[in-house]
Specification:
Blueprint: H1 6-16, E1 34-37, H2 40-50, E2 58-61, H3 76-84, E3 87-90, H4 99-104, E4 112-115, H5 116-120, H6 157-174, H7 179-206, E5 211-214, H8 221-227, E6 230-233, H9 246-258, E7 263-267, H10 273-280, E8 288-292, H11 300-304, H12 309-324
Parallel strand pairs: 1-2, 1-3, 3-4, 5-6, 7-8
Length: 326
């Protein structure tokens, strides 16, 4: 699920260069700069920095119809749009394994490319298995030459500040006439990120509970480590597994009882079946299921209803407060 079949990608790249394909709908030479972002947080940071100058660029969000980052395969139109864009912003983890081939064949050789994991550098965290977590089949890592990094870097408000600065630098390069406004927008938005970061820290410090239990994937590692929260989960953040073993269910249920947790957590895409099974195996069987939004996918309706990175992170803070009893 994490990588596109090489044959599929080769055909896609070939199709993107043929006459009559999606290239006809791309911005023409001499038009405003084009910016492509893979997932919603990156897209929203870009539009916040653009501010009133949003119409200065042609801004595209690739994953905009509840397509999960981990299973995304670019269409011919998407490949062509990336190939011709002036700025491409992506996460850079295993799920973006298709990007290198697309960039190698890009038409715009002057494209600015931002790989956010590269921007994060040594602060990027390797994927790890928590106590009680399901192991991926054959996932002992013995044959892996390179470490696999946790891709969910956008769920840290501290990381977001670093990424927004990198995006602002790129936008200033593309549109130097508006650089002053972009810098001002960055300062205003960074202040909002810092304020929300402080709200999270204050809430956790005041909370009687410092543990969160995820009956689902665990994409919130960066967030929990930012604030010293102890997590338990069924699967790692990038896991392709959807069914938990008996041992995992028992472990999570016993941990819920042991810590006297009144809630369990799932992500926005979960069907909640694992959470219900865990609850049914606890002593009280009355825990509430809370939902945290990992922003791995979004719908056009969400965008039309005004969803922003900050609004979703504010909602996640409310869930966190309830989970921790704050």
């Amino acid at each position: 699920m994490k990588r596109i079949a090489p044959i599929f990608l080769a055909l896609t790249l070939m199709a993107a260069t043929l006459p009559g394909c999606a290239r006809e709908e791309l911005p023409k030479a001499g038009s405003k700069p084009s910016v492509v972002c893979t997932i919603f947080p990156l897209y929203d940071w870009t539009r916040q920095i653009l501010g009133d100058k949003l119409n200065n660029v042609d801004l595209t969000l690739l994953l905009n119809n509840r397509i999960d980052l981990h299973s995304y395969q670019p269409s011919v139109d998407s490949v062509a749009r990336i190939s011709a864009c002036d700025l491409f912003v992506y996460v850079g983890g295993e799920s973006d394994g298709w990007v290198d081939d697309v960039l190698e064949e890009a038409m715009n050789k002057n494209m600015i490319v931002i790989n956010l994991l590269d921007v994060l550098g040594d602060a990027a965290k390797e994927e790890e298995l928590l106590e009680g977590m399901e192991e991926e089949p054959g996932g002992d890592g013995a044959d892996d030459e390179e470490p696999e990094y946790d891709e969910h870097i956008w769920l840290s408000l501290k990381n977001a500040q670093v990424f927004c600065a990198a995006i602002a630098d790129a936008l200033c390069s593309l549109d130097s006439a508006a650089a002053g406004e972009y810098r001002n927008n960055l300062d205003v938005y960074t202040a909002k990120l810092r304020a929300l970061d402080l709200e999270y820290q204050t809430a956790v410090e005041a909370a009687p509970v410092k543990t969160m239990l995820f009956c689902d994937r665990f994409p919130f590692r960066y967030l929990t480590e930012d604030y010293g929260i102890t997590p338990y989960a069924a699967f790692s953040g990038c896991s392709a597994e959807t069914e938990a073993s008996f041992d995992t269910i028992v472990f999570l249920a016993k941990k819920t009882d042991e810590l006297n947790l009144r809630t369990v957590i799932v992500t926005e895409s979960a069907d909640q079946s694992i959470a219900r099974t865990v609850i049914n195996n606890t002593a009280s069987k009355d825990q509430r299921i809370l939902v945290m939004d990992a922003m791995q996918s979004i719908t056009p309706g969400d965008l039309q209803n005004g969803a922003t990175y900050l609004s979703i992170m504010e909602s996640n803070l409310n869930v966190l407060k309830e989970a921790l009893g704050a």
